[in-house]
């Protein structure tokens, strides 16, 4: 049975562990680099990404997390976890990286601008049939401003009217620019990386967790066929 690690430094890791339990999957808390060894996949939960980065540095986790992501095993970042996985964050901060995109950490504004909305996610219905909408719980949420060509967009949402105007310069000497599109990307997949700006672990809908576990199965199937190819040659 798959063993899913959940980074347990801060934030909504207990909620992810409970969501995994609901679908009969064993999740284990990860706080130290050596605890990543032997895992099949990893969830990086929501919380507060700068605090999480400080704790990750304290535990010397960044190199091991980067190795885990580049090693190709499935990794899912929700909210602050999405920020961790991005290659670039507006304003800069230490990141794990791997996901070819730029994020804005507080795209939708402050805690007071937290909101819930229905999202349309055709991929969820493609996998399981049924309804393609899901509840998106956005808590002081980030959003994805742009993605590279290898990144599949799974969901976007309208930019709420009450959101403060934000500049989207990357902190690397770019010209200041205001985000002016009327929709913004909130869920993506790039190979072994899944990222959502919202919190499926705070709903009773298990489809995102099952979607992630399917990525785990796919990666096992790939490893198995590579192994049988190499042993038959
Ligand atoms: N905006 C937060 C951050 O900067 C993330 C919020 C969340 O994970 N709910 O880390």
From TrEMBL:
It is an enzyme of class 3 (hydrolase). Keywords: Glutamine amidotransferase, Hydrolase, Lyase. It catalyses: L-glutamine + H2O = L-glutamate + NH4(+). InterPro entries: Class_I_gatase-like, PdxT/SNO, PdxT/SNO_CS. L-glutamine binds at residues 47-49, 105, 139-140. The active site is at residues 79, 199, 201. This is glutaminase. It comes from Urochloa decumbens.
């Amino acid at each position: 049975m798959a063993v899913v690690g959940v980074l347990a430094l801060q934030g909504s890791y207990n909620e992810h562990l409970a969501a995994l339990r609901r679908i009969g999957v064993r999740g284990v808390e990860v706080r130290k680099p050596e605890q990543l060894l032997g895992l099949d996949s990893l969830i990086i939960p929501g919380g507060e990404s700068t605090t999480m980065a400080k704790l990750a540095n304290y535990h010397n986790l960044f190199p091991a997390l980067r190795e885990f992501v580049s090693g190709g095993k499935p990794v899912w970042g929700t909210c602050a976890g999405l920020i961790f996985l991005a290659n670039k964050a507006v304003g800069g901060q230490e990141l794990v990286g791997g996901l070819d995109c730029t994020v804005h950490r507080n795209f939708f504004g402050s805690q007071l601008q937290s909101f819930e909305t229905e999202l349309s996610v055709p991929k969820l219905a493609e996998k399981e049939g049924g309804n393609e909408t899901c509840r998106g719980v956005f808590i002081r949420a980030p959003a994805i401003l742009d993605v590279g060509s290898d990144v599949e967009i799974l969901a976007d949402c309208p930019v709420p009217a009450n959101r403060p105007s934000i500049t989207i310069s990357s902190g690397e000497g770019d010209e200041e620019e205001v985000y002016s599109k009327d929709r913004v990307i909130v869920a993506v997949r790039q190979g072994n990386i899944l990222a959502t700006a919202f919190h499926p672990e705070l709903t009773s809908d298990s489809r995102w967790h099952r979607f992630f576990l399917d990525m785990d199965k796919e990666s096992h199937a790939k490893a198995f066929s590579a192994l049988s190819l190499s042993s038959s040659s």
